[in-house]
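Task card 7
Instruction: Convert sequence to structure tokens.
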Amino acid sequence: MANLTCISSMATKRLLEEAAADFHTQSGISVTLQSVGGVLAAKRVSDGEPFDVVILAQDALDALANAGKVEPSTMTPIALSQVAAAMAETAPAVAFERADDLRALMSSAARIGYSTGPSGVALISLIKEWGMHDALAPKLVQAPPGVPVAKLIADGTVQLGLQQRSELLGMPGIRILGDMPPGAEISTVFSGAVCAAAPACKEAASFLAYLASGRTAALKEKIGMAPAPAR
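Output:
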């Protein structure tokens, strides 16, 4: 049976690790995974590394399709991910139900951590929309590619961190406050596609179909994601 190679952003690492094991059990097809920062993953596919499957935020995948690096007809929505906020597990309890609560937390935090991925881009846009960018810019700390925001929280580099819930769940030293409150929601659809130079196109397509199927719904819920809406 074929051995697929798959590259993804860190946000889907847990999903893919567990799903790949079940897919192998069901199909006999093994999947070798590489999960890195989303910007780096897109660059490696763009540079022509011979992966079978790439899984990234939808906008990044669209850019690869436009550049001819993936097969557009194979693009498959896989998971919907919400951004959540977290603080150190030793931090005092705070209100986190309204957009005003988030604004107050951002104003009071000495440092605010965010990611290089789509959630980080959306967060900066939200801060600008609120007219808070000039005040908050000196506090913003962008995690290096591949470094979880949770690590910055746990080691005290930042007091408040915002990232995909799936990347915060289970990380030591932090407490998740909740998903972004109403009026400040940030969601990302992660999709997959067969790479243009994939050695195993048929098997790659079957892996994408499996990831989008109901068989992975419970796993997505467990890691803080949800099935993606159809395009």
